[in-house]
Design a protein that fits this description.
The chain has three domains: 122 residues, 4-hydroxy-3-methylbut-2-enyl diphosphate reductase, catalytic domain (Cobalt-precorrin-4 Transmethylase, domain 1); 111 residues, 3-Layer(aba) Sandwich (Rossmann fold), CATH 3.40.50.11270; 84 residues, 4-hydroxy-3-methylbut-2-enyl diphosphate reductase, catalytic domain (Cobalt-precorrin-4 Transmethylase, domain 1), CATH 3.40.1010. It is 37% helix and 17% strand. The strands form four sheets. Strands 10-9-11-1-12 form a five-stranded parallel sheet, sandwiched between helices. Helix 4 links the parallel strand 4 and strand 5. The N and C termini lie far apart (59 Å).
Length: 364
């Protein structure tokens, strides 16, 4: 009507399940040379730091009761976050969203001192579920800055882990995102320079960046031990071995999982003809199987094994029932639960799960 303004209303379309093409249709679409098989990467899935963080939230819910607040995603996986939400976890972006006096858990990616102070100022009870390997990098940053060194932090700006590490020594740290930035970054004193890295990067790209930096700054110091975590390195090594034989590589992992995205990129760099990342089996497009004989399958370090098993079940429906596990390393790393939680578990007499990592429980 005249004189009235109209407001556009967006109405979402209902979700309609996609009908999959049958295995027979896919087989007819393109000839497959050789037997169909799956090369299943090992190690894959949960690392010790992820397992520890997930247990921490589960145990906090069990002993303190819901709601338990978690700053950011406890780990970068949609399934894990959704499962914990169903149990009573509430995920927030910042501590100012948490009611005063409530319990908040810091994610496996770590936080800066400013975040810890913010939680303390609000009287929040905290459990620090930062992966011990990330904590190691934090301590290195503090120590090197205290000694007057400038830090070149190799990592992806905006990633939670990088934000936390940078926050330990912001006046001494410069983030280097990629080889292009390594060629142009400026430093104050090239004689007092050290590099650190995000723990979930591509090993090859990190070494390329460091090589460029060292060429420009010959006195660049290495960290005392490798910052890229064992799980990231091991999962990349496994997919490197599989990729030259694979017509297709499927990586199970979430889009915001740095190590999962790197696995997809590494697969292509090492010879896979195609590589895709999915959160769930229902995201796998059966047209990817056309003309495909060998499929490589792996998962990021924050992915429970149940999601891989669901992909394997789908692959079996399309004729890929022959599964060969390609083992490149054995993992037996275990981490104790956060100290704040250990005290409660001891008081309650709970000895069911005090460690995170392979060997502590099945990789779910």
């Amino acid at each position: 009507m005249e004189g009235m303004t109209s407001t556009a209303v967006s109405v979402p379309m209902p979700s309609i399940p996609r009908k999959r093409r049958s295995p027979e249709e896919i087989a007819a679409a393109a000839e497959v040379e050789g037997p169909r098989r799956v090369l299943l990467a090992a190690p894959r899935g949960y690392c010790a730091g992820v397992d520890r963080a997930v247990i921490a939230v589960e145990k906090a819910l069990e002993h303190y009761g819901p709601p338990v607040y978690v700053r950011k995603q406890i780990v970068h996986n949609l399934h894990v976050v959704g499962t914990l939400e169903e149990k009573g976890a509430i995920f927030v972006e910042e501590t100012d969203e948490v009611p005063e006096g409530a319990l908040v858990i810091f994610s496996a990616h770590g936080v800066s001192p400013a975040v810890v102070k913010s939680a303390d100022d609000r009287g929040l009870r905290t459990i620090d579920a930062t992966c011990p390997l990330v904590t190691k990098v934090h301590r290195e940053a503090v120590r090197f800055a205290r000694d007057g060194n400038e830090i070149l932090l190799v990592g992806h700006e905006g990633h939670e882990e990088v934000e936390g590490t940078y926050g330990e020594a912001p006046d001494h740290t410069t983030i280097v995102n990629n080889p292009a930035e390594a060629r142009t970054v400026q430093v104050r004193d090239p004689d007092k320079l050290i590099w650190l890295s995000q723990t979930t990067l591509s090993v090859d790209e990190t070494m390329e960046i460091v090589s460029i930096l060292r060429e420009r700054f010959p006195k660049l110091q290495d960290p005392p031990s490798d910052d890229i975590c064992y799980a990231t390195s091991n999962r990349q090594a496994a997919i490197k071995k599989i990729s030259p034989q694979a017509d297709l590589v499927i990586v199970v992992g979430s889009a915001n999982s740095s190590n999962s995205v790197r696995l997809m990129e590494v697969a292509l760099e090492y010879g896979a003809k195609a590589s895709y990342r999915v959160d769930f089996a229902n995201e796998v497009d059966e047209s990817w199987f056309e003309g495909v004989s060998t499929i490589g399958l792996t998962s990021g370090a924050s992915v429970p094994e149940v999601l891989v098993r669901e992909v394997l079940a789908l692959l079996a429906e399309y004729g890929y029932a022959d599964v060969e596990e390609v083992v490149t390393a054995e993992e037996d790393i275990l981490f104790s639960l956060p100290k704040e939680l250990r005290a409660t578990l001891k008081e309650k007499g709970d000895v069911s799960r005090g460690l995170g990592g392979r060997g502590s429980r099945p990789n779910r």
